[in-house]
Design a protein that fits this description.
Layout: E1 3-6, H1 12-31, H2 34-40, H3 43-52, E2 60-64, E3 68-75, E4 78-84, H4 93-103, E5 108-112, H5 116-124, E6 127-135, E7 142-148
Parallel strand pairs: 4-5
Antiparallel strand pairs: 1-2, 2-3, 3-4, 5-7, 6-7
Helix pairs in contact: 1-3
Length: 150
């Protein structure tokens, strides 16, 4: 039986693995930059950032069903990150994490405009674009704000 719980130090290696591989899967087709996808984005350095305190586990919750399969990061009413291990996508993990986030008061998020899978995922859960958008730092792409419609 799955549970969603606060992340702790023992989850760091799995969190880093999920973040790197899910981001590679989602963003490599958009950015087409293998130097970033396979050079800059590495599991060990990200895990070390969490262990050193450079990255915080505050507001990070994991979906666990025998092991961590996905995570959501919340700050106030904003979903900052929601990632599911690519091997477990399409099995309800992301939906459960999103439902959990909304129950905790999440009402807004920013999404890469060209990430159509994410856009469709959020729209299917009641989120809509506000019209606010801004450049994604260090890229030619834009992120757009979405809010939960009541």
């Amino acid at each position: 039986m799955f549970c969603i719980r606060p992340a702790y130090t023992g989850d760091i290696s799995r969190i880093a693995e999920i973040l790197i591989f899910a981001k590679r899967t989602a963003y490599r087709p958009i950015f087409q930059n293998d130097q970033v996808s396979f050079g800059k984005m590495q599991v060990l350095p990200l895990a070390q950032q969490y262990l050193s305190g450079e990255e915080s586990l505050e507001g990070v919750f994991v979906y666990e069903d025998g092991f961590v399969q996905g995570l959501v990061s919340l700050t106030g009413d904003e979903v900052c990150q929601l990632y599911v291990d690519p091997f477990f996508q399409g099995r309800g993990v992301g939906g459960a994490l999103m439902k959990f986030a909304v129950q905790r008061g999440a009402r807004r998020l920013w999404v890469l405009e060209k990430n159509q899978n994410a856009v469709q995922f959020y729209q299917a859960r009641g989120f809509a674009f506000t019209g606010n958008r801004r450049p994604e730092e260090g890229t030619p792409e834009f992120i757009a704000e979405m809010v939960l419609q009541n």
